[in-house]
Amino acid sequence: MGENQPVGALEPIDLLHLDARVVGVYLVETDDGLALFDCGPSTCIGALKSGLAARGLELTDLRHLLLSHIHLDHAGAAGALVREHPTLRVHVSEIGAPHVVDPSRLERSARRLYGDDFDTLWGELAPVPEANVEVVGDSVVGLQCFPSPGHASHHVCYLHADGTLYAGDAVGVRIQPSRHVMPVCPPPDLDVEGWFRTFEEIERRQPERLALVHFGIADSPSEHLALIREELAKWAERGERMEEAEWVAAARSDLEAAVGSEAEHWEHAAPLWQSYLGMKRYWDKRLEIA
Question: pTM, whole model, 2 decimals?
Answer without folding.
Answer: 0.93
